[in-house]
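B., you asked whether I could sanity-check this one before it goes into the benchmark set. Here's the sequence:
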Amino acid sequence: MKAKTIVLAFLATFGLAALATADKPEGKKYQVSFHEAVKVGSTELRAGEYHLVLGSPKVHFIHINSGDEFEIEATIHTADKKFSTTAIGTTQVDGAKKLSSIELGGSTTRVAFP
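And here's what the prediction gave me:
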């Protein structure tokens, strides 16, 4: 009876841990910084540092200070060689900076935004 109680307690704890992480984005995580606000689709990311979590077909930006999270559609490309530094590609649209791509330094990963 005692062994059965221990097993049930273990399973309950494991189940709660799984539920706690069920809504968290998974994938490779990178840190990116924006010196000024940028638009991505209809979302505006304010200036600051973010964790960028790669997923498909969406990526997640998590603001490091506030914890605010933004899920954004993106296409992930693989380059032939590694990027030496992280580069943020933007365009000017209607007076606002629009995020078009991020090349992730130290990797062959380029994230493109529609």
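One thing to flag: Residues 2-20 form the longest helix (19 residues). Otherwise nothing jumped out at me.
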